[in-house]
Amino acid sequence: MKKQAGFTLIELVMVIVILGVLAAVALPKFIDIKSDAQKAAVAGVAGALSSASAVNYAARKANSTKGVAITTCGTVANALQGGMPATVVITPAIAASAVSADTSVSSCTVQDSVDSTITSTYTAIGIN
């Protein structure tokens, strides 16, 4: 007589139940990743704006024909190579905030273009 090997129906059902429980536990963590990605994107753009402002300041200070003038929080976007991404905007109320020459303002903010509650701050360094 030959002995047959294989899984019983109960074993297969138990594996499916365990996989279902694991999926139910892991799914909320993957759903929350979208908001984390949006926050990281806004923070990344804020970092790029701070860096662009600093590099622009140094270039323009060394040679007044290089770089762009930064007089408001909104004009920092002109120093950003490639321009602003469509998913992030400079907060409209803050964009017109004046930045005096040779001073830095760290209260400039950017926000997600869809969810305005996601914001991040950047530093603008003024130069004429």
UniProtKB/TrEMBL annotation:
<dbReference type="Pfam" id="PF07963">
    <property type="entry name" value="N_methyl"/>
</dbReference>
<keyword id="KW-0488">Methylation</keyword>
<keyword id="KW-1133">Transmembrane helix</keyword>
<dbReference type="InterPro" id="IPR012902">
    <property type="entry name" value="N_methyl_site"/>
</dbReference>
<keyword id="KW-0472">Membrane</keyword>
<feature type="transmembrane region" description="Helical">
    <location>
        <begin position="7"/>
        <end position="28"/>
    </location>
</feature>
<dbReference type="InterPro" id="IPR045584">
    <property type="entry name" value="Pilin-like"/>
</dbReference>
<keyword id="KW-0812">Transmembrane</keyword>
<protein>
    <submittedName>
        <fullName>Type II secretion system protein</fullName>
    </submittedName>
</protein>
<feature type="transmembrane region" description="Helical">
    <location>
        <begin position="40"/>
        <end position="59"/>
    </location>
</feature>
